[in-house]
Amino acid sequence: MKTTTVANQKGGVGKTTLEIHLALLAAEQGKRVLVVDLDEGDLSQFFDAIEDDDETPYLMSSQLFSDEHEGRVPRQVAPNVWLIEADVPLLDVDDMDLSVVHNLKGALKRFENDFDLCMIDTPPNLQRRMVAALVASDCVVAPFNISKFTLSRMPKLMTTIETVQDAFNPALNFLGFLPNMVNSRSPDEIDALPGLREGYGDSMFAEQIIYRPCINKSLASGNPVWVKANGSSQRVAGREMKQACNAILSKVWAA
Length: 255
Ligand SMILES: Nc1ncnc2c1ncn2[C@@H]1O[C@H](COP(=O)(O)OP(=O)(O)OP(=O)(O)O)[C@@H](O)[C@H]1O
Ligand SMILES: [Mg+2]
Prior knowledge:
The structure is a single chain. With 255 residues, this protein is an alpha/beta fold. 39% of the residues lie in helices and 14% in strands. It has a single domain (2-254), classed as P-loop containing nucleotide triphosphate hydrolases (Rossmann fold, 3-Layer(aba) Sandwich), CATH 3.40.50. The chain has helices at 15-28, 42-46, 103-108, 128-136, 148-167, 187-200, 213-220, 232-254; strands at residues 2-6, 33-37, 75-78, 81-84, 117-121, 139-144, 173-179. Magnesium ion binds next to helix 1.
């Protein structure tokens, strides 16, 4: 099982959007995917809720940080996709002793032979949950948008990753920054990309995802953007998203 975290210390840059598309594309390609929501439930809400009469002891994210995960199971939410969903006690993890950052890795170990890919979605702040995800991961990918505030936080993410590599997880691979929500009508944004790519080199993907409202609409109706394409803009968005996700997944499998 390859474990991959989607992270950025900036909110609203498309972490959950990318996470969902990566998981669903890998699942379409025949991989068994375990999705872990360490944020506040956006990712969990994309999938159908647990049915009222379903009494299966499903595994919740907070339990990955305690001994309570034994005997509990991830919930299948789509073909080839299983979810460990966010619950309210998950928020308490950020107030626990720093040693809690090791628990997630230990808890996920039991799934090593059950899944090909484990995708972890993280909150935008550097607290226990995000560090735990990086400690448990083989790879990390960081979507970003071209705004002054996001760009100024990118070096902070690099420092965080280096600190985790040095202190806890030397095998962690930074797959790169992925430009997302690029405004194709903004000359400033389009002009900024070549300079960013030159500056970050191999740490930035050659692919990018343009801002398109159909991405948001598709997610709201429970689909990745390439499903039920309605019009040429959505077809282009679907192709672009697949290209970006395939570029990321090929780095994951090679890691
Ligand atoms: N390329 C895009 N085009 C249009 N809308 C997008 C695009 N990427 C993301 N969005 C939308 O932008 C919003 C924020 O995205 P998302 O929730 O994935 O960000 P996030 O980084 O996970 O945020 P948070 O830090 O709050 O968890 C969502 O409504 C999402 O559907
Ligand atoms: Mg999110």
